Structures are given as structure tokens and as C-alpha cells.
Model the fold of this input.
Amino acid sequence: MMSGKEKRVLDPLRFFTKLKRSIRKRVLFRKFGEAWNAKSAFQNRRYDSYEAYLEHQKAKLETHDFANYDTEFRTALRERLDALDIVWRGRTVLCLAARIGTEVKAFLDLGCFAIGIDLNPGKENRYVVQGDFHDLQFAPKSVDVVYTNSLDHAFDINRIAKEVLKVLKPDGLLIVEAVHGRDQGVKPGFFESFFWSNIDELIRVFENAGFKATHRTPLTHPWPGEAICFHPIQDRR
Ligand SMILES: C[S@@+](CC[C@H](N)C(=O)[O-])C[C@H]1O[C@@H](n2cnc3c(N)ncnc32)[C@H](O)[C@@H]1O
Done:
């Protein structure tokens, strides 16, 4: 156990890392502000261009430390996936906007062949490759499962739904984990670019794009929301 005296010792590296992150956050806030367009049940952050959206979204990795999140979310996700009535071993899984790969590790733990994509996977990431969920680089009908908990980082949600429908096998599965919406008192944070009034509205987007929601489960970690399983509707492809 640390004594009170030891606690006061300043770790210069930690101090400068925190300072650098805090300055970077201020710079980003000045640049992107908090202007949103509200369109019916949805809100989109206002960007001058797609390039500005990309720059903002890529910046989150350098402003946070994800070490605890990585351990805790990996366990929580593995446990809830394991509770689903699905044989995971050997399934191919694509995780969209997977950052350092926490969700990828949860699927690997369950015996899947899993990979993530992210705008900014950081350096030498073994689990996540560079990619944009509006323009997936994978072959049509090639993946068993697509997972994402990052739809609140969308620029064009309809485009993402189309891309997921493209890469999923006809009997594939899409798992969306989504935080509650504004109607439940949740507000988007500084890095979010898209938000919903409630999860029903988000589900409607995927149903209009050619999916059927087959299973909904409440979740509490890493935030209060729902996990939703969708299946492609065959005659809509
Ligand atoms: C809230 S983080 C979630 C990360 C990860 N799913 C997790 O739970 O650890 C959102 C991630 O979305 C990524 N992102 C934002 N826009 C994206 C896009 N168009 N394509 C791919 N990744 C994107 C960001 O780089 C960031 O890593």
C-alpha cells in the first residue's frame, strides 16, 4: 500500500501526457465546437466537409487512455456474447470502428476468426486495420457476423447499413450495441457525430435498409443501452 508521502510524488511522464491530451482536446473543441443539425429523430454533428469529419473522428485515440476500458469491456462483452444461443467457434467476425480492438479480443476469446477496422487503429495494431465503415474493403457476402458499438460516430448511417448488408453472408448476423438516446436523457459527447432520440428509431434505419431485428437485450456496460441482433432479409438484397 502507498503511503501519503509516496502519493504526492509527481510522475513527470504522466503529467505531460495528461497536459498534452488536455491541450489537444481544447484545440479540437475550438475547431469543431458543438453545432448539430437536427433531422427528425436524428441529430448530425455539423462538419464543413467529410475530411473535417474524418479529422475529428481520428483524434479520439490520442486524447484518452483506454487501458482499463480494454480489460473491463472485453470481459463484459465476452460474457454477454457467450450468453447468446450462438456457436461462436470458427465464425468470421468483422468489428466496425473497433479502435484498439477490445471487441475483437472478446470474439477471439470465444474462438472466432475476428478482425476490426477503424479510421485510427493506432500504430502496430494486431487486431484492427485501417478502414472506414462507410466504405468497407471486404468482399460481398463474406462475413458471418458484423459487430459495432460505434454508430454514434457515423457520418451517413444509411450508407453504413448498406455496407454491412453488402459484406454479410445471406444467413449472417449484425450485432449493434447502442447507448440510449436523448429521450432517455443521454446526450452525445464531444467525439460523437450522430445521435438518436431513442433506440427504436435507430432500429428502424436498419429495418428500412433490409434487416430484421430478431433479438433485443438491455445492457449496462460500458453504458446503459441495448444489444440488438439483426438478420438480413433475403429478398431485399
Ligand atoms: C467510441 S469509439 C469505440 C471504439 C471501440 N468500438 C470500443 O468500444 O473500444 C469510436 C471509434 O470509432 C472510430 N470511427 C469513427 N468514425 C469512423 C469511421 N467512419 N470508420 C471507422 N471507424 C470510425 C473512431 O476512430 C473511434 O475509435
Summary: Residues 1-5 have pLDDT under 50 and may be disordered.
